[in-house]
């Protein structure tokens, strides 16, 4: 029997990335906080949900088109914001952006991108959307400049990361003493105006604050950020919809609605912040219920298969984002590898749709997934029935 060497699933890409990446960069990508319970749960929790397929339907034509924030896109599968794609490949976010453009969907660009946001979005097209992820830096005026640039460049939404009042404790990063290599720059911190003003000189960072200090201000988190100070402020400086990333509870979902946010991303930062929270897929139903269709709900965390995307959609997510799978693809083969990660997931999603009798994303609802408690009740009902049946057989045998 002949075997193919090319990756056939995300696990294969993960394995290849572990061979080709620099050990400290790899551990930065893969690390989770503390005992990594939440990071591991994000993946394992999907297994508790089982698909409830329907058969004998015509599934020759499958469409993954959907709308996000009122705009048509090719697929509900998107790319979550991740710092420093150049750790995986020299073309960094440019390669990711080209892969995303061939694929459709949403790409969320991290504030900590190693390519300037204007260059990343220039690789896109109208089948997709770019959203800009924000950290509120200790100097809020710098965040404001990034917001203005994003709006000018054509980003369709702002994604405010709200689960990082302080950086989670990622033990592997401490062990490897991870710091980005010197050839990598956080290009969104450089003022694009400054280069054009000073004849060919390299642009300088905003307010001349050294790049490393700006990075440290992100890494240090911003513990003083609150609902009342940040959301009204953001709304006063932008017309773009605001999406909160890092919501895990019904309570915060209701607050997001009351503060006029357009959507929330159910996320625990890939298990990199607070260890011991619910897995994203377990938190999703609570958030969906609290959202009452008033705002869009998306999710990320632990998605490694098309069937995971299907389950998240069935539980009410409007779109599903992946981070590490794309980074592993990028490490494997740049743009082609990132595209391969997306293609694998997209094809598996289509396969799951066909095998479960669903032809459109809109058809995928909670009737297609069995939640853990339902499974438990059903299996105990089955056991009960079997017991009753046995009783009857026993009675009959005694006739
Ligand atoms: C290496 C790495 C860097 C990340 N950088 C950011 C970031 O800059 N901003 C952010 O909001 N989330 C960041 N995240 C979190 C992801 O957006 C996402 O929430 C999470 O990783 C999804 O889980 P997954 O990796 O299991 O797909 C990062 C995650 C990883 C793995």
TrEMBL record:
<dbReference type="Pfam" id="PF01070">
    <property type="entry name" value="FMN_dh"/>
</dbReference>
<keyword id="KW-0560">Oxidoreductase</keyword>
<dbReference type="InterPro" id="IPR000262">
    <property type="entry name" value="FMN-dep_DH"/>
</dbReference>
<dbReference type="GO" id="GO:0010181">
    <property type="term" value="F:FMN binding"/>
</dbReference>
<dbReference type="GO" id="GO:0016491">
    <property type="term" value="F:oxidoreductase activity"/>
</dbReference>
<feature type="binding site">
    <location>
        <position position="110"/>
    </location>
    <ligand>
        <name>FMN</name>
    </ligand>
</feature>
<feature type="binding site">
    <location>
        <position position="133"/>
    </location>
    <ligand>
        <name>FMN</name>
    </ligand>
</feature>
<feature type="binding site">
    <location>
        <position position="245"/>
    </location>
    <ligand>
        <name>FMN</name>
    </ligand>
</feature>
<dbReference type="InterPro" id="IPR008259">
    <property type="entry name" value="FMN_hydac_DH_AS"/>
</dbReference>
<keyword id="KW-0285">Flavoprotein</keyword>
<dbReference type="GO" id="GO:0005737">
    <property type="term" value="C:cytoplasm"/>
</dbReference>
<comment type="similarity">
    <text>Belongs to the FMN-dependent alpha-hydroxy acid dehydrogenase family.</text>
</comment>
<feature type="domain" description="FMN hydroxy acid dehydrogenase">
    <location>
        <begin position="2"/>
        <end position="374"/>
    </location>
</feature>
<feature type="binding site">
    <location>
        <begin position="300"/>
        <end position="304"/>
    </location>
    <ligand>
        <name>FMN</name>
    </ligand>
</feature>
<dbReference type="InterPro" id="IPR012133">
    <property type="entry name" value="Alpha-hydoxy_acid_DH_FMN"/>
</dbReference>
<feature type="binding site">
    <location>
        <begin position="81"/>
        <end position="83"/>
    </location>
    <ligand>
        <name>FMN</name>
    </ligand>
</feature>
<dbReference type="InterPro" id="IPR037396">
    <property type="entry name" value="FMN_HAD"/>
</dbReference>
<protein>
    <recommendedName>
        <fullName>Oxidase FUB9</fullName>
    </recommendedName>
</protein>
<feature type="binding site">
    <location>
        <position position="272"/>
    </location>
    <ligand>
        <name>glyoxylate</name>
    </ligand>
</feature>
<feature type="binding site">
    <location>
        <position position="269"/>
    </location>
    <ligand>
        <name>glyoxylate</name>
    </ligand>
</feature>
<feature type="active site" description="Proton acceptor">
    <location>
        <position position="269"/>
    </location>
</feature>
<feature type="binding site">
    <location>
        <position position="28"/>
    </location>
    <ligand>
        <name>glyoxylate</name>
    </ligand>
</feature>
<feature type="binding site">
    <location>
        <position position="170"/>
    </location>
    <ligand>
        <name>glyoxylate</name>
    </ligand>
</feature>
<keyword id="KW-0288">FMN</keyword>
<feature type="binding site">
    <location>
        <position position="161"/>
    </location>
    <ligand>
        <name>FMN</name>
    </ligand>
</feature>
<feature type="binding site">
    <location>
        <position position="267"/>
    </location>
    <ligand>
        <name>FMN</name>
    </ligand>
</feature>
<dbReference type="InterPro" id="IPR013785">
    <property type="entry name" value="Aldolase_TIM"/>
</dbReference>
<feature type="binding site">
    <location>
        <position position="135"/>
    </location>
    <ligand>
        <name>glyoxylate</name>
    </ligand>
</feature>
